[in-house]
Amino acid sequence: MDDCCAVPTTPAKGEADRLPILEQGGRSLCPTCGRAGRKIERLTVKSLLARPLDVLRPGDYFFCETADCPTVYYHAEGQCFSEADLRERVYQKHPQDDTILVCYCFQHTLGAIRREALGGGGSRIVEAVTAGVQAGQCACEVRNPQGRCCLGNVRAAARRDA
Ligand SMILES: [Zn+2]
Questions:
Q1: What mean pLDDT, rounded, does the chain reach?
Q2: pTM summary value
Q3: Distance 135 CA to ligand 1 centre (A)
Q4: For residues 157 and 112, is the Cβ–Cβ distance under 8 A?
């Protein structure tokens, strides 16, 4: 598990401009890729881990969004979890994979969003996700590995091929 930290990877060129703006504060550098990650709620880590939860350490965990970095969650003291430790594949790690879920609550894949976008005329998936969120049907903090709403990602994916 900690082995992932021993293999530094080179950040991909052009990656930074696709990353969302990091929130102020709560940052910590990923031990694997060296990029700043965002603090993630402990409940999200607990929900997504496919491992016995007694591996968790006290203190904050962070989410690494770097696509070519194998680390998904990490602890400030160096503990790392990759997708192999999780119950879900992570959209940020496969930003070009049509089979990856972008919306984990309503189960919309990147491919479905892209196909719809190619047809033009707006995104019914964006509308459906928005309606679901407004209806309180989402559970982003326990279903989405990023621990927060997917809507920004869904909109961006719909725009990319529009
Ligand atoms: Zn990383």
A1: 86
A2: 0.80
A3: 34
A4: no
